[in-house]
Amino acid sequence: MKLIKTVDAEGAVLCHDITQIIRGVTKDAVFRKGHIVTKEDIPVLLSVGKDTLYVWEKEEGMLHEDEAAEVLCEICKGDHMERSQPKEGKIELTAACDGLLKIDTKALKGVNAFGQMMIATRHGNFAVKKGDKLAGTRIIPLVIEEEKMKTVKAQTMELTGGKPILELKPFHHKNVGIVTTGNEVFHGRIQDTFTPVIVDKLSEFDTEVIDHVTWDDDDKKVTASILNMIEKGADIVICTGGMSVDPDDKTPLAIKNTGARIVSYGAPVLPGAMFLLAYYDRMAQGKNRRTVIMGLPGCVMYAKRTIFDLVLPRVMADDEVTADELAALGMGGLCLNCPTCTFPNCGFGKGY
To answer: Are residues 198 and 282 in the same domain?
Structure first.
């Protein structure tokens, strides 16, 4: 850095904050480190007693914090995202549409372990709305080696396969079939209070319920209905009830007998331990078509938030859920049943 006269500072970059003190009114930085001085700024700087300024002197091989911030932004920003202009080495990313946020956590950790730079994000695998803040980047020093930024970019691209660290997967329209099971509901002994809960949760997304049937505990009828809904074009089939290990709870067997690939029967989430997830893949009109089949345990009917709330956004974004990912939900998979629910702004489902 070098010392120059304030009257000659137009276009120069400040090396430190400039504080303005007005008794009883303010004591704050009137200009921040990294600010590029304009002609209009000069009278203000003189008014706070700055006849001279320490400014950044461009050096070969060094980047100003805002220039380096552009590199971090390029590493992070995926499609369907908007960005802010660089300010004090910071750039923020926001969602340009509703969707599911995905984060390459290994690459994110790699950048943050590199030193002199950081990326902070919200949790991945959760739904976001248009305009939501997704991430913020920051270069720590005022200037940083250009070679260092090239190295972190190369290493990150190697980890991600050339993709950005953040990905926003838009939600898609889904046709849904619902199979309600249980002798007590089928014979009218109790009212079906499960289906309205499912319909309400589906209404948060672009969905259409194209079929709904109610059966007793007959696995063959349930299997036939699932396959029939798939034939009708259901992208999602949701089965409610009959998900425990009791001998007369036959929904898991009915799902298995469709020939669908069972991802997991059981998940380390409370509420939601008896959850079942399966994928039914087939060729239709020369294209591979997939229907997601979910068996929902009874807790989804009465608990505010469950495993269903963690998996449904991923299904809506065509984001395949693996058995390993379900297993990883154990840490953070315990809902605390807070008197006032703040989900998703809480720790539920945010393990690793």
So the answer is: yes
